[in-house]
């Protein structure tokens, strides 16, 4: 076991070296825990220990054989199971309470904020603290997570959510498991909300949540403001805010899923998967668009990003076209 030395009352003591996950996609870390470019051995084994620089590195299937990634995926699955079980209980209770919609939504938003922030703090050092396929997909499209890691994380998160849902159903009893029929944040009243409307709402709320989560939890430029210590709290606030806004937007819509694994688990235990594909497809579209925007103006590149290159090209084209017209103007006048 690797050790480090420290002095205690004039004596040298040995202690185990802290095993901190080096991962560019660590939520809340704002890329403060990435590998040095000189650490070739680590980057060959785990290319996403630093922001990825090529698609080849991202799709290196040899990373499936990395035991550390499997261990991190296992912890992601455990975290997903515990989180879904913890928040699934209040979701069941809220459907039976005789309270206003706003009061229920506010309670759900606050519990989501606290739970997500604490779980991100807990799992950030060991797996990156994703606990959500949407976050994993977003980091993959942004070049902060390899394809093998994304596959293993999403599989583990989904399995953990399904296990949590069935344990929750076993604990409360099948008759009491979302007895009203609707699962907040997952199912909708199809007589009031069409599939197209559901997809639009899921896409926009998902994109908003991912955009804000990246801004406060994965942008290295935030290190100058609050560093990695406050990032998980802000990530929890963003998801709680979107939960609050989406749940009261219209009758029949119970709020944005934001976490397709959660809906997969809770809906599977209910044996009701109608329109569940929307949760995945909408998040896939939202995270891929966020990835395109991220690559347009990446925070970790010194050279001009794609958007600046396009703007400079258009500016030069307009300038040349204007000069050409100015040269031709006297000829037409004569």
Automatic annotation (TrEMBL):
<keyword id="KW-0472">Membrane</keyword>
<dbReference type="InterPro" id="IPR022357">
    <property type="entry name" value="MIP_CS"/>
</dbReference>
<dbReference type="GO" id="GO:0015267">
    <property type="term" value="F:channel activity"/>
</dbReference>
<feature type="transmembrane region" description="Helical">
    <location>
        <begin position="230"/>
        <end position="249"/>
    </location>
</feature>
<feature type="transmembrane region" description="Helical">
    <location>
        <begin position="106"/>
        <end position="127"/>
    </location>
</feature>
<keyword id="KW-0813">Transport</keyword>
<feature type="transmembrane region" description="Helical">
    <location>
        <begin position="147"/>
        <end position="168"/>
    </location>
</feature>
<dbReference type="Pfam" id="PF00230">
    <property type="entry name" value="MIP"/>
</dbReference>
<dbReference type="GO" id="GO:0016020">
    <property type="term" value="C:membrane"/>
</dbReference>
<keyword id="KW-1133">Transmembrane helix</keyword>
<feature type="transmembrane region" description="Helical">
    <location>
        <begin position="69"/>
        <end position="94"/>
    </location>
</feature>
<keyword id="KW-0812">Transmembrane</keyword>
<dbReference type="InterPro" id="IPR000425">
    <property type="entry name" value="MIP"/>
</dbReference>
<protein>
    <submittedName>
        <fullName>MIP transporter</fullName>
    </submittedName>
</protein>
<feature type="transmembrane region" description="Helical">
    <location>
        <begin position="199"/>
        <end position="218"/>
    </location>
</feature>
<comment type="similarity">
    <text>Belongs to the MIP/aquaporin (TC 1.A.8) family.</text>
</comment>
<dbReference type="InterPro" id="IPR023271">
    <property type="entry name" value="Aquaporin-like"/>
</dbReference>
